[in-house]
Amino acid sequence: MSTPSKIENQQKLIQTKDLVFIWRLIRNNLGVIILTPILALLIGYVYTYRLSDVYGAKVQLLLKSNDTYDYQDQIYQGLGAYGAYMDVQNQMRIIRSRDLIGEIIDKMNISTSYYVVGRVRRKEVYNTLPFTTDVEVINGMLFEQPVYVFIQDKKSYRIEYVVNNEEKSIVGTFGEVFINEDFKIKLKKSYSYSAESMDRITDAEYEIVFHSRNQLINKYRSKIDIENLEYTSILEINVLDEIGVRGKLFLDTLTSVYVDYSKRLQLEVNQNTIDNIERQLDTINLFITAKENEILNYKNKNSILNLPKEEDDYFERYVSSLSDKRNLEIKRNALRTLESYIINLNEENFLPPSFEALKSDIYLTQTIKKVYDLQLELKSKSSSQLDNNANIIKNQAEINSLKKDVLIYINNLEGVVVKEISSLDSYISSNRNKIKKIPVSEQGLENISRELEVNNKMYLYLLEKKTNSLITRAGIIPQVRVVETASQLGVVKPDKEKIIRLFVLGGLLVGLFVALIRKLFFEKIQNVNELSEASYLNVVGGLPFVNQKDSKLIVTERPKDQITESFRTLRTNLNYLGDLGNKKGAKKILVSSFFPGEGKTFTSTNVASILSMSDKKVVLVDFDLHKPKVHKTFDIENTKGVSSYLIGKDVLDDVIRKNMLTNLDVITAGPIPPNPSELVLKAKMNDLFAELEKRYEYIIVDTPPFGLLNDGIELIKYLDVFLVVMNTKYIKQKGIRTIENLLSKHDNIEVGLVLNGIKRTRLQYYYSKYSYKYNYSYGYNYGYGYGDTYSDYVEKD
Questions:
Q1: Can you name the CATH fold of 538-759?
Q2: Ranges for the AAA domain (predicted)?
């Protein structure tokens, strides 16, 4: 049952063991946690140093400036499509259009980029290199490929480049044209090279890159940002460029081209109106000239001076009817012209014709204006979007619907006009019959004169409209005004400090992640507490690090040392470990390790020695028949022992070495047999342990590493306690799991863990190097090592 304090600890958000885990994580990986941010800082610095600065520039434009005279406002009303032009959204699309950007690119002459190549990075420059380039690229594969230029002397240069995986090198002369299959190029010196500057110029490496027109258009379209300032018709245009001066030049050129475009559009509308008026004037002028000649001929032929006063009434009504009919015919012609415009409307010809005769028709005027708006919007979208785009399809459908409605309306209106003309024809016919009563000669003259008068009035009317249009043309100004001229904004990106901070933060996170991975999967157990937390097996002791080569029987050589006290504690714990299995202490103890070199022989010999010091009769048996070492610890011969006893060559009394220490006997391994693993399976094993148990209070058995050889596992059935020696140089969480899984199959023996090599200072941990090597070959194919020989391990264990 859990105590209240334990329940309380479980309910805490952060427990003490969590803080201990974090502290160990940081302490054991402090170098990694510190070094990775520093390394990331260096990488971030180099990365940002290689990045090119991107500069910003901006300009503000005011749409539909009101800088006009009062009389011009009335004139502009006759231009029809003026209102649609100033739609802000359309203007934003026009500015981004490929046509407008292409016109800007053509004016700027920036088809070649220039770079100075350094050791770490290359830097783009603008109009500062000692040469300029005029080039016509013939081979399109050369676009966006680096072309290196080396100045050899004051007169010549060398160009190197790669195209189609072929390296090419040419030598040319400044000022002369060079032509090959890739380009036509001429390099010109920007200034005269002095003797003092030649060394600097010839040592430098220059790079030029050619750009196609489409690539430049796409580049600047992606770098333009247009914003309509709230509640105004002001557009703020921003552009990004690697060269600040070039970005400002781009906006200056854009302003010039766009202002010119706004004026050019108005001029096109005005010119269409003037051309239409001039065509009508030419037609009427020919008619007037013919009528004047006809009057002169008629008067000469009939000797007519004037018509009687009473007949003026008939002619006035007749002429008035003819005038009305003429106006209706003009209206009908205008309707037909407008109908032809609607039918043949396309992206290339979308400016509407002048339809002054239909100006009074509000519906028609507004509908034509709306069609023009949509057609203008369609042109803007078509320049920046694909033809199958949903917005373009929707826009085209709306235009077609309006065209259909306009054509129906024009057809109905034309029918009305035709009926009115037919009615006037009847009225004119009636007046003509009345005029027939007038003498034929006078009647003919009056008829011709009236027709002449009607055409003269029409001629004067058209002349007035033409004059107004010409006055309008003279007064046309751009409908775009620069509110704020183009200015540089300085470096806008990248934010190098932010990038470096992100690198450092990323390095810190990587360091923590690596530390966590090392802690969970690769960190070695360093003390008894960590081992207890990591394993459910009993931990019976911990041994501090000592140089085992210099001191083998350390409990006798250094009885007052800390490690000797550790062996005394281990001796006590072994008794308790035996009691856990309902036995009277641990009497038969098997000592082994998972890997070689962990100190199993050192532990077994000193455990046997410390037990003998407590006035207990102890025997130490070396069952490591592959690589025996117990005899070396006691400095005795190994001519007979366990192997010779098991094969029946010697009896037990012959192989026991009496009183190596007080109360301590030793049985060495004996000569190494060709089949050591098979000897532990012999039936004499039972006799051996039965006899030893009769003679001794404690039996200590030293075996080979059970991670590599099965000898130790086979001996489990004869013993009480399995003492597993682990070394801080090797043991990890994963290794503990492996040992637990391996020993979980043997529940008939108590298992105790001993941690060897606990260092007095943790700083040594960060500089330790280790490897898992063990070799039992001896020529008998026990190749568990990694190419090492027996001599490599003679002094390790």
A1: Rossmann fold (3.40.50)
A2: 587-743
